[in-house]
Design a protein that fits this description.
five-stranded mixed sheet; alpha+beta
Length: 452
């Protein structure tokens, strides 16, 4: 399963949920999830989040490697390996582990993003040892044949055909990403380019596996009806004997300066409504002018993060220029992020008129900023929007894992509420001026081939 970072809708939502929950009660991370962290001698980092309200446990193993770490010419390799990890090992035949998890009433899945790959199971607490045994085994004992490679490569190619090549909206998004980033590997689709997927072979797969799939390059998150001491004992038993792997550096090509605005125009027979979007290059927690990351989260909420936002209120409700309008932003990338805006014009409105109306709202923020009440309400909306994050079976593990794999430390995460609360109106203007630069943007227009 692919997740197109930074648009990890579920993870982004639950991350907001967690932070909103912290802020709503004015307490720290330790008082919300009360995480316990320890590291095995082989370098495996383990975080335990105890919640005894339901007899269920999420076991989630994250690797510090994603599609942005694919070798040049081998796009899609990280995602391909995710698929192949469900093949056989020295201990379990192909498909046997999945059957065991199903037989004990558990579920499993995996996902690849630009920055990480994760595998998870949801099981009853008494079966935690079973999934630890399975996951620890395939960390270093994966066995693949040429037949495995060929058959699963066909599966991935069919996935690309069905989800991307036969979907004009998906193809349009690929073109936007390739235009947004000039060199940085976020410009390459997670699933990979078709002509490169077709050439992926067992040599490339095993080299990638041996390089990245090691305990010192992984984080294990256990959340649910468990105790930290029991988890530590089990983790030592199943993961502790795995040898530490070589230290690997994540080397990524940086973008050169963006000096010209870009436009991507495409027509499609699959849609009936014109779609307009613009993406601005933006910092993340770890990349660029990261001091703006907290203000940008609130700027996004005020500009287009909800039906109470400026874009929706002005363009959809009041002026009726658009049938939809909004924005998005994610700070949790290892690399650069984007602040994106989208809208679709009502019948009779031109793209030029729609674009002008959106630029007007941006100019108002740049010149006049946001009001005190807008900023206060934005913070309250973030609290209200996701208050039930802790009640989710998988959200705690996803939230903590996503943030750790995006470069944050467990002890750092708790400061989010305070940093959001400290954002001022001037911070919003400063962040807007840093990001809203046309020479660092891509505008996309996807329109019907035969408009009605």
């Amino acid at each position: 399963m692919m997740l197109s970072n930074p648009y990890l809708k579920y993870i982004c939502f639950t991350a907001w949920a967690f932070f909103a929950c912290c802020h709503a009660t004015n307490i720290s991370l330790a008082q919300v999830f009360d995480p316990t962290r320890f590291v095995l001698k082989n370098g495996l980092e383990i975080v335990v989040i105890t919640d005894h309200r339901a007899p269920v446990v999420t076991h989630m193993l994250w690797y510090k490697v994603g599609s942005a770490d694919d070798p040049p010419g081998n796009s899609g390799l990280a995602h391909f390996l995710e698929h192949l990890m469900f093949k056989g090992t020295t201990k379990y035949n192909a498909g046997e582990a999945s059957k065991i998890i199903a037989r004990i009433g558990g579920t499993e899945n995996a996902f690849t993003s630009y920055d990480y790959t994760a595998f998870f199971q949801i099981i009853a607490p008494n079966h935690l040892s079973t999934v630890m045994d399975i996951e620890a085994d395939r960390m270093r004992n994966l066995e693949l044949t040429e037949r495995d490679i060929l058959s699963e490569r066909d599966v991935v190619l069919e996935e690309r055909r069905s989800r991307t090549d036969n979907n004009d909206v998906a193809l349009f998004r690929e073109q936007l990403a390739s235009s947004m980033f000039l060199s940085y590997p976020y410009r390459i689709p997670i699933i990979g380019w078709k002509h490169e997927i077709e050439k992926l072979d067992i040599k490339a797969v095993m080299h990638f596996y041996n390089r990245w799939y090691n305990p010192n390059n992984a984080v294990l998150i256990i959340a649910g009806d468990v105790s930290p001491m029991d988890v530590k004992s089990l983790a030592q038993r199943y993961y502790g004997s795995i040898p530490k792997g070589p230290e690997v550096a994540r080397v990524r090509i940086a973008d050169p300066p963006h000096i010209a605005a870009r436009r991507v125009v495409m027509k499609s027979s699959q849609i009936g409504q014109t779609r307009w979007t613009r993406r601005y290059l933006a910092p993340s927690y770890q990349y660029g002018e990261s001091r703006h990351a907290y203000a940008l989260q609130l700027l996004n909420e005020i500009l287009g993060g909800s039906t109470s936002s400026r874009l929706y209120t002005k363009l959809v409700v009041e002026r009726k220029d658009a049938v939809s309008a909004g924005s998005w932003y994610g700070a949790d990338n290892l690399g650069p992020s984007t602040l994106g805006i989208f809208a679709s014009p009502v019948k009779g409105k031109t793209i030029k008129e729609l674009e002008g109306a959106i630029d007007e709202q941006i100019d108002l923020i740049l010149t006049k900023g946001v009001s005190k009440s807008e900023l206060s309400l934005a913070k309250k909306r973030l609290r209200r929007s996701a208050i039930f994050a802790r009640d989710s079976v998988t959200a705690p593990a996803r939230i903590i894992g996503n943030l750790i794999l995006s470069g944050q430390k467990v002890h750092e995460i708790e400061y989010w509420p305070m940093k959001i609360e400290a954002v001022t109106r001037q911070d919003i203007i400063d962040a807007a001026k840093a990001v809203f630069q046309l020479n660092r943007s891509v505008t996309g227009i996807l329109s019907p081939k035969n408009p009605t």
